[in-house]
């Protein structure tokens, strides 16, 4: 289960500029050069601008925003699939930006798990083998990993399906495997980039319920990206809304009508 001493995720003054000479432009962006100007004058793309977010341990942090607003860019900084142009990404107090290759490999194996929109299951492996994949990579013994995997397979409602293959399962069931695989790692951080966006609405709501139920028990630090406002309001302890690479609204969720106004009117509601 999640480590009670885990200090969550803190993102500090994070900037990402895409392009060959990104570093050369960061000062100008800090001084106010806009995304459009950066693109038109210098052919670089502003992915993220001065992101500051605190994601406390045990919370679900939802990231919302229109297509191209920087959601995936942001979540990929947390396990450093993307290197920032400037800023800090502190996970449990350690800046992932400063990790060397070995530290980063260990960090990714043990501290983070991901659930993908397109499930990313291995087609020639059974449900059980897909679920224990991360434990294999961690070097956990087979007998132990089978125990852990079976527990999560049952917990996500797939008991009896462990010998099936992904193509024998519906989309919703495949995503249950994706979730079981991620949870088997027992990493304190769970990263979910539009994990439910490919699912039918009813299945999607089922999966939200599964996640909320499990979260009561495991209290991971979850970063959940979605386009869907109802999903955001249902799942999020905190919601941040991105536009053009900037956080334009943040709210404690489950009460946030402000978030609803912001996303639908495309203007900040200034609270
Ligand atoms: N490797 C890259 N090179 C250049 N520009 C990029 C790269 N990756 C992302 N971008 C740009 O950064 C911005 C943010 O993209 P990102 O994929 O993070 O958006 P998103 O909010 O996840 O969108 P979607 O909802 O469509 O998934 C966009 O303008 C995008 O074109
Ligand atoms: Mg995306």
TrEMBL record:
<keyword id="KW-0547">Nucleotide-binding</keyword>
<comment type="similarity">
    <text>Belongs to the ABC transporter superfamily.</text>
</comment>
<keyword id="KW-0067">ATP-binding</keyword>
<dbReference type="InterPro" id="IPR003593">
    <property type="entry name" value="AAA+_ATPase"/>
</dbReference>
<dbReference type="InterPro" id="IPR051921">
    <property type="entry name" value="ABC_osmolyte_uptake_ATP-bind"/>
</dbReference>
<protein>
    <submittedName>
        <fullName>ATP-binding component of ABC transporter</fullName>
    </submittedName>
</protein>
<dbReference type="GO" id="GO:0016887">
    <property type="term" value="F:ATP hydrolysis activity"/>
</dbReference>
<dbReference type="Pfam" id="PF00005">
    <property type="entry name" value="ABC_tran"/>
</dbReference>
<dbReference type="GO" id="GO:0005524">
    <property type="term" value="F:ATP binding"/>
</dbReference>
<dbReference type="InterPro" id="IPR027417">
    <property type="entry name" value="P-loop_NTPase"/>
</dbReference>
<dbReference type="InterPro" id="IPR003439">
    <property type="entry name" value="ABC_transporter-like_ATP-bd"/>
</dbReference>
<dbReference type="InterPro" id="IPR017871">
    <property type="entry name" value="ABC_transporter-like_CS"/>
</dbReference>
<feature type="domain" description="ABC transporter">
    <location>
        <begin position="9"/>
        <end position="269"/>
    </location>
</feature>
